[in-house]
Design goal:
The chain is of the alpha/beta class and 736 residues long. The protein contains 12 helices and 34 strands. α1 (12-73) packs across α3. The termini are far apart.
Length: 736
């Protein structure tokens, strides 16, 4: 049989198969390469976005202390002296410094590369580049600055309520610098969005505590504060988007500086031992409501607290209950255990993971917290220590960016409406006061009255008389006063008169025939010089007399003149020495008498002195009607505060027992060693002997409304950055 001949070349079918398979493999390779390339691009973009997010988080955390420091320095003397002093405090420089300090321009710094022998390495991270504040940060809308201040405009419910400010200069400054000032107040823009009437409480109001882990107050609850805020946008990769081809939306943030007057049951800028006396015995008759704060605290066994917050450290002893959670001693370690806080031996509320477990279990933040636990938040006590008591410690600052100077803001004695200063003494060896200067407010102006304790306003007049008119003139005295009529050492007197008094011969007789005479009056002064024992000169203060005294002087009433500082003017008189702290028996003292009924001080009363303070009588025992709309319960007493380096209860005699209600605090400052700890319930009597523990009853509670805030308080700042998500508008965003 003849075989069939082939029409095509041998191997043709094999070539087609090979070619087909080859093309198929090539297409698969191309598809795989394309997929891998896309995956690499996606992964690179994801990595780059993550890199940007990490860097932005570091930048945000760096802004918190930088903004707070700039706000402080803007209030200090010389901050507005020249461009060199102003420039570092601007928002532009704050943001630029935050970028640098957070190392946001490079993944690995050159020092680290050198340390591992990679100094010549080339970093291929496209996210590493020089970043400028102008291309990274921006404000909102038509604002051409770096941050939009929350002032003088209603930004709607998407933003916190704005503060009112009248000065156009300050408005412009607040766009360039973080301005903190008493001139920024709550007004019509915040009406209905804060918890109390803005007409009655413009300086501090009721606002929600931010949702942060640092628990000075409970997250979301109303507390007394003022919120200064600035909004800005940030996009760290914006200027590199042409190179990276990565489009990122702007992240929006609100930076808030809350001005928080001390309002907790215990507020101690010191190392405070809470729960035990200095002799080691546990507290007796002590009822504490609400939270406590201390820069550093040692919480002793057996005490129960609702909330504890600290700044530099908390030591919690065994058998302590905090927020209803019982802590018990762990015999196998130095730690503490609790079924609610940890659930395992040897752990504490600060052990990693314990806080997170508590939050998941309870749906709330742990009632034990340190300000260092909140990366986007910082709590800063504004503490001048001993200078807080001393009106002469500060200075009249000039060239400040903020209209409120740092000394006026932080020295309590400089904030008082009234002052009594010892301005002259007998000699360099005799410290007996011979001259006092009394300052008070009258129609918004500070008036001064110099009282020569050796002689009166004119020759022959006793000390304390004040000239009021010439002959034939009539003066109205709303309260009883002593009056004198005459000239050149010849005077006739009438005592305890009130109403209209015409100074003429028909009423007094003629003490100096043929000479034009003058009228004088002597009010019932609210102070006098007295001696404690036989040698210690003291200023005795009578707060109940101020209403009458101020009326006789034609001054503003106790609702304005509601605070007083008492100091010795050692700066302007070389014979007057600066009072010692701790106080000594050779220093002057201040004695409080006639202080039981302070009902005339409807807005409260405060005393600040750098002298030892003796409380000789019952203090603030007459209730008044609570302010309308405050919701405060009766009995309500005028809110009062007393600041002194040392307090003694009693004067000539020691009291049998002592009962204290309100709040306790300390300005001891940097005391951190165990032998420098502060024991707030260790009270001393006039004789400097310790009060017996069972004779002291203490009932402490927080301030819950601005109506209960005394005229002078300690101040704190809470600095918080929140990302502007919808929940942030209602104050429910969580800052890590």
């Amino acid at each position: 049989m003849k075989p069939l001949s082939r029409k095509q070349p041998a191997g043709y079918i094999s070539s087609v198969v090979v070619l087909t398979l080859g093309l198929t493999v090539l297409l698969l390779m191309l598809a795989t390469y394309r997929s891998a390339s896309r995956a690499q691009t996606v992964q690179a973009e994801v990595t780059l976005r993550g890199d940007y997010d990490t860097k932005e988080e570091a930048v945000i955390r760096a802004i918190v202390p930088l903004a707070a420091n700039a706000a402080m320095k803007s209030m200090m003397n010389g901050s507005d002296a020249n461009s060199s002093s102003r420039s570092p405090l601007s928002w532009q420089k704050i943001f630029r410094q935050a970028i640098l300090s957070s190392n946001a321009e490079e993944s690995v710094d050159s020092v680290t590369l050198q340390s591992v022998g990679l100094g010549a390495a080339i970093i291929g991270n496209p996210g590493d580049s020089t970043t400028w504040a102008s291309s990274t940060f921006r404000a909102y809308d038509s604002y051409d600055s770096y941050a939009m201040p929350g002032i003088d405009k209603d930004f709607g419910t998407d933003f916190p309520p704005s503060l009112n400010i009248e000065s156009a200069t300050i408005k412009n400054l607040d766009r360039t610098y973080p301005i903190i000032s008493s001139k920024k107040q709550y007004g019509a823009l915040a009406a209905g969005r804060v918890g109390a009437d803005t007409d009655d409480y413009p300086h501090f109001n009721l606002i929600p505590y931010p949702e942060i882990r640092f628990g000075y107050a409970e997250a979301g609850e109303m507390f007394v504060a003022k919120r200064n805020w600035w909004a800005f946008k940030m996009n760290l990769g914006d200027q590199q988007k042409t190179l990276t081809q990565v489009e990122r939306r702007d992240r929006e943030f609100i930076l808030s500086i809350y001005e928080v007057p001390s309002q907790l049951a215990i507020s101690a800028e010191a190392f405070a031992v809470i729960g035990a006396y200095e002799d080691g015995n546990p507290w007796q008759n002590a009822n504490i409501e609400g939270g406590v704060f201390a820069s550093r605290a040692s919480i002793q066994s057996g005490i129960s607290l609702e909330r504890v917050s600290g700044r530099n450290g908390l030591e919690i002893d065994e058998d302590v209950t905090i927020g209803g959670n019982a802590l018990v001693g762990d015999t196998s370690s130095t730690g503490l255990i609790s079924s609610d806080f940890s659930g395992s031996a040897g752990t504490t509320p600060f052990t990693p993971g314990v806080r997170e477990k508590y939050e998941v279990t309870h749906g709330d933040f742990m009632p034990v917290s340190l300000s260092s636990e909140s990366g986007r938040a910082a709590f800063i006590p504004i503490n001048r220590g001993e200078e807080f008591f001393d009106r002469f410690a500060g200075s009249d600052a000039s060239q400040t960016i903020s209209p409120t100077s740092w000394d006026d803001y932080t020295v309590g004695a400089r904030q008082c409406a009234m002052s009594i200063d010892i301005t002259d003494v007998a000699s360099s060896t005799d410290p007996t006061p011979t001259e006092l200067t009394f300052r008070y407010q009258k129609g918004g102006v500070t008036e001064s009255l110099v009282l020569d304790l050796n002689q009166g306003a004119a020759a022959g007049l006793p000390s304390g008389f004040i000239r009021c008119c010439a002959e034939h003139e009539t003066v109205e005295f709303p309260y009883p006063v002593d009056v004198a009529y005459g000239i050149n050492g010849e005077y006739y007197y009438q005592y305890g008169v009130s109403g209209s008094v015409t100074f003429e011969n028909d009423r007094f007789g003629d003490p100096a025939y043929g000479t034009l005479k003058e009228g004088y009056y002597r009010p019932s002064f609210a102070h006098e010089i007295a001696y404690l024992g036989t040698s210690q000169p003291c200023i005795t203060l009578y707060p109940e007399r101020f209403k009458e005294l101020l009326a006789n002087l034609g001054a503003d009433g106790p609702e304005v003149n509601n605070s007083i500082s008492i100091n010795a003017n050692y700066k302007e008189n070389a014979f007057i020495k600066k009072p010692s702290i701790p106080c000594t028996d050779s220093d002057y003292g201040v004695i409080l008498r006639e202080c039981s009924d302070l009902s005339s001080f409807t807005r409260g009363f405060s005393v600040v002195t750098n002298l030892r303070l003796y409380i000789a009588d019952d203090f603030n025992q007459v209730p008044i009607t609570p302010p309308a709309g405050s919701g405060l319960e009766e009995p309500f007493y005028p809110p009062c505060s007393m600041f002194a380096p040392e307090k003694r209860y009693g004067a000539e005699n020691d009291p049998y027992a002592l009962k204290i209600s309100g709040q306790l605090g300390s300005l001891a400052g940097g005391a951190v060693a165990a032998d420098q700890s502060v024991h707030l319930l260790d009270m001393k009597a006039a004789s400097s002997t310790a009060m017996e523990h069972d004779k002291v009853e203490v009932n402490l509670a927080p301030i819950r409304h601005p109506a209960a805030l005394p005229p002078i308080t300690m101040m704190n700042w809470l600095v918080v950055i929140e990302e502007r998500r919808p929940e942030a508008y209602e104050g429910t965003a969580v800052s890590p």
